[in-house]
């Protein structure tokens, strides 16, 4: 079996925004599907991990796109494991039209947790470190790794929303992609008419659940560059806990 | 070509709710995709209609499910045109596992509009009424048609939300499925732990756009039966316009 997984998708009409280009959230979802197909076919997928009380947890995502697939376009996602350490593995993605035209790339970092204790666990312990056999370290992924998103404490609170039924996935917490959608919703269509999202970076810190409120703090860090910090609060408690941080670059 | 279109899908993990069953919104989206595939293959799809300044507009949807596909399950959507009149066509759907097990059915009503004038136009005018050749009137769809959703004027305002970037599709207005998701978000996970949505009915009245606010008025009409009226307002105007009405039956 090839170390690189290649999967075909189509930009469904209702997964495209007002401009007829795919929403980043839906593209991100297809990347997660590609990751799931790739790992399942190679013996370390979610479905198998569930049986041994383990799960992959997405830690970071950095998506950089030159162009988004347009309505009805077929596109290909290639995905491969670039490196695997004891507690983190990095997986890359390349989105193309399958005929040499590259739409963009993505880097992601994953941890493995014990689903009972929610503690990180040793990736090499799965099938005697079999994941090491799947590493591809010579395929280029010409986008910068996600770094630490630095923000000032005085970022402005721009939105608060209640977490709802449709935000929560089978893990019982807010789906990784939903954060991306909620963050992109901080800008309106007038903004997207004038700007294209070039890069979206997100670092996941804690999980949010039904009943929590998400507070969005935004700060402009350069021209067309914004950082957003999501902090959860709950109706029962005054504690504010950081959930994730994002960095967006528009052009 | 068969008059009935049959399409295969998979219940993607991140399209499933906390219980591991597909979200109704994502299932509804796959139904719309099936409708689009079916009509495109038979010469009256959206892509062709766009070239002659026409578009299908969803007018009503009534989905009734005995069970929702579970995570990773393959399922089949069959769709066919049950009848076509000059200004409305009715299209039915059957969701099954492809091996005789039926998950549920759906009835839908569509109008055709001129995309410039936004006025209804004659469905028979397309390709000399070719749609009539695709009618299947003997395949059962054992769910009730959507009726007029009767509501009192004193239904309670339970939520107001701003329409965001991710709500708007390529038509420039709120995507039909997004209304379903927002309405289902009126109930929390504790409710869904105890109740299963048996039937969801929606009648679309007007289009809502970015900048509008959606106001959700809810009324309980019987045990486990609720009606929801969505009314749009805007920051610029005090006019309140009804956008759609829904009826939900839980068991």
Question: What does this entry look like structurally?
Answer:
Two copies of one chain form a homodimer. In chain A, α1 (24-41) runs antiparallel to α3. Chain A has two domains: 5-134, Roll (Thiol Ester Dehydrase, Chain A); 156-250, Roll (Thiol Ester Dehydrase, Chain A). Chain A has 251 residues and is α+β, with helices and mostly antiparallel strands. The model of chain A has no long low-confidence stretch (mean pLDDT 94). Chain A has a ten-stranded antiparallel sheet. The radius of gyration of chain A is 18 Å and the shape is globular. Chain A contains four helices and ten strands. The A-B interface holds A 12-14, 16-20, 23, 25, 29, 32-33, 36, 46-47, 71-72, 164-166, 168-170, 172, 175, 177, 181, 184-185, 187-189, 192, 210-211 and B 12-14, 16-20, 23, 25, 29, 32-33, 36, 46-47, 71-72, 164-166, 168-170, 172, 175, 177, 181, 184-185, 187-189, 192, 210-211.
Layout of SSEs?
Two copies of one chain form a homodimer.
Chain A: E1 5-10, H1 24-41, H2 46-51, E2 54-65, E3 74-84, E4 89-96, E5 102-114, E6 156-162, H3 176-184, H4 189-194, E7 197-204, E8 212-222, E9 225-234, E10 241-250
Antiparallel strand pairs in A: 1-3, 2-5, 2-7, 3-4, 4-5, 6-8, 7-10, 8-9, 9-10
Short description:
The structure is a homodimer of 251-residue chains. Chain A is an alpha+beta fold and 251 residues long.
